[in-house]
Amino acid sequence: MNTPVLSTDTLTKRYGRHTALTEATLDIPAGRIVGLVGPNGAGKSTLLALAAGLIRPTSGHIHVLGRTPAADAHQLADVGFVAQDTPVYATLTVADHLTMGKRLNPTWDDTFARTRIQQIGLDPTKKAGRLSGGQKAQLALTIAAAKRPKLLIFDEPVAALDPLARRAFLQNLMEFVAELDISVILSSHLIGDVERVCDHLIVLAESRVQVAGEIDDLTANHHRLIGPRGTLDTLPDGIDLIAADHTDRQTTLIVHNTTGHPLDLPGADTIGLEDMVLTYLHRAEGLTAPTLQETRA
Fold it and tell me: In this structure, are residues 98 and 90 in contact, taking their beta carbons and an 8 Å threshold?
């Protein structure tokens, strides 16, 4: 059995009186591209920092690749982390960054790094401070991947990029995953990007995990039910209510089928990834999801 790339048990992180992450329990298989989705302040950056070993839990447990994050040099070498501001050094050239990466990382693949820099058209003599946002992101991605890690962690890597640069970054990311056979955890506000490149999903809101799992399974097992008012008041066991909306004549529900069997209820229809994510986010904030309002008679 493969070791999970990330495993947590009631993982909690507090900063003084503020709880940034509350009792998160996750088990993510290796070999996945994981999309971490949620609003600002949901706890995404905290979870990624815990996974990278940059901070320690207040309580609970976390294991990355079967070990405590940042336990030793070998564990550090197995994880590549790119922070939200795609950190590069403005006064160093592209070539300087590769030299530094080679000196600091025992598993550094210099041929890979220099080939990728050439393929994406970066001038090795150009200082990083003069690169565009997309070029900085590509440089940071190349450095992280050239470590030959088993896990790459990205905190909002495309948030500040224009659509073309974002598309190029995500395309390169998918190429790296195929070429290097690695796992990726990628936080993003952009559900379309997550749907395009990810096969596993974690939805965080109000510091808690709202739902997590394989994207295909989640979308196949979340449904919209529509029926006359009063006909959907009772649901079978294993059908969890996520959100409800009522008019005088009609009831609309979003439900999660956890039975392991196809949902056999009249008027059931699967919902897309974006509708599903927004429903969980609105539920966490105590709001009525707009996807429900759109179905009103």
Answer: no
